[in-house]
Amino acid sequence: GWMLLAIAVSIFVPKNSKLLWFLRAHFNRNKDSKTESGKYASYCANALEKCVVNGARSAKPSRMEVLSILLKNPHHHSLPHAVPVHMLNGTYHVVGFDGSTTISEFLQTLNLDIGCRGIELSGFTIFSDDPIEKNMDHCLSQKDKVCDVISRWETALREKGSGKFENKRVIRFTYKNRMFWRRSTPGETEKERLLFCYQISHQIVEGRFPLNKELAFELSALMAQIDIGDLTTDKGRCSSAGSNILSEALDKFYPVRYQESASQEEKDLLELSLAEKWRGLAGKSVTDCVRILLTCT
Hints:
The chain is an alpha+beta fold. It contains 13 helices and five strands. Helix 1 runs parallel beside helix 3, helix 8 packs across helix 9 and helix 9 runs antiparallel to helix 13.
């Protein structure tokens, strides 16, 4: 019963004031930090008050939300749910939330943790992947609830599979820039500048950033220096995994359209050209390379 209440109190607020009063009294009467049911009552009391402030939900509980409540007492954690938010530099940061947390609150927590400014200054916000279309992201509304976003994503995935749910697939949240304002550049943090460089690099690779081959080599070399560091003789030959690091850097940072029809001999020449540009950046720090790349673009 307490598990069901722990899920329900974050979904809707009773319209009847007497029922709301009864729930508050029931939770307060059963609060107890020494018993499991008492801990559930404490969680329910807090969750109910937050739902009153943030408003009711628009979607049913997600599979992830229900499992999270069933598998552990939510009182044991300040926030009962958590998901990773992926950065474009290949890292991720885990952010906690509850049933009433809005995307705005979720984003504020993330910004504080990683040292970035708010969306109104930095332009960085949360995107989610599409459960059906590959390579498609959706910018999330700041007023939406995190749990509602997850629920709608799972529902769309289930409908795609004719009622079957793919256990191995989960929603993917990504932190990236939605809109850039030049007037906000004076207060940029190092983290924002670094992530913006990776976002520009992704656009270059996908062919959504207009530039010629020469500039593409320059920017690819800068990104390789940021991502990997100095190109040494050992790195130039092979990585620890046995694959050529120049080939990896070329695939990761050089526009796909300039490689698609290239023969192996032409790819070898591309790697040599990248190596020449990359070695010219030896000793340059990440901060220096980020500054140069942002100035060029």
